[in-house]
Amino acid sequence: MDDSDIQCTLCSKRDIQNAAVIWCAVCDEKLCQSCNEIHKYLKISSSHEVTALDVYKKLPSFISSLKQTCDSHEEHFKLYCPAHREPCCYKCTTTKHKTCHGFQTLDSLIEQSQSQFLDLECTIDELNINIETVFNNRTAALIELDDQVLDLAMHIKKTGEKIREKLESNEKEILQQLSVVHSKYKAIFENTVEELQTMKAEIKSLQKNIEEMKEFASEYQFVLGSQEIRLKTKKEKDNFCKYFENDHQLSQKNVALKFTPGQILNQDIFLGTFGC
Ligand SMILES: [Zn+2]
Ligand SMILES: [Zn+2]
Ligand SMILES: [Zn+2]
Ligand SMILES: [Zn+2]
């Protein structure tokens, strides 16, 4: 709203459009320049204190909209009723406020309010400082909270990474051990199977020799041949018996490989715990 939007109250009553420039607190009227001249020199209003309209407009609206005259009796407010917490005129004390007590004159209130207003200003200033202090404190706490969460999240992530790295290296190590043991026993078992294969072939050949001797050999050939076969049989038997001697035990023993999972699987929480 600019200044020209507010019209002179007196001119408006005569259907004349004139922008108001001052406000009289006593008359509670907004006046144009020419009405102000008359207002200034009229005996009844010459002592009225006026305020430039642009200053008046800077007041908070709940202040500038305060009424100065009584609507019911068209008289200036002179009293203040503490029960209704509102100003009133003398006539009001016999009507709306007839049962009210402890009226104060507005003049005495104005006198008191000078010092009370200073107190009010002090109270507001103090409150402002206190709010500012707590505000700064909580703002700092908010920033610190965010920082803490960021740090912790990083720490938790790094711990997880370290555990995964350790698990991976542990897994590789165990698989490596398994592979070494596998190679060792595989070589022994393969060697044994190969030797037994040879023995089986040798025994089969001896059995064949015996069948052939029984069928075709002369007595002389049978005697000497039997000796030869006996020697070969003893050799195979000795070879076979070696598997049951101490230093050959591995070649006929089954191997039970075993893996025991670490304690970590028995724990519900192995990354860590969080608390505050
Ligand atoms: Zn006017
Ligand atoms: Zn006036
Ligand atoms: Zn009244
Ligand atoms: Zn009252």
TrEMBL record:
Keywords: Coiled coil, Metal-binding, Zinc, Zinc-finger. The keyword Repressor does not apply. InterPro entries: TRIM45/56/19-like, Znf_B-box. Residues 189-216 form a coiled coil. One of its GO terms (cellular component) is nucleoplasm. GO terms for molecular function: ubiquitin protein ligase activity; zinc ion binding. SUPFAM superfamilies: B-box zinc-binding domain. Residues 6-53 form the B box-type domain. Gene3D superfamilies: Classic Zinc Finger. This is B box-type domain-containing protein. It comes from Mytilus galloprovincialis (Mediterranean mussel). The lineage of its organism: Eukaryota, Metazoa, Spiralia, Lophotrochozoa, Mollusca.
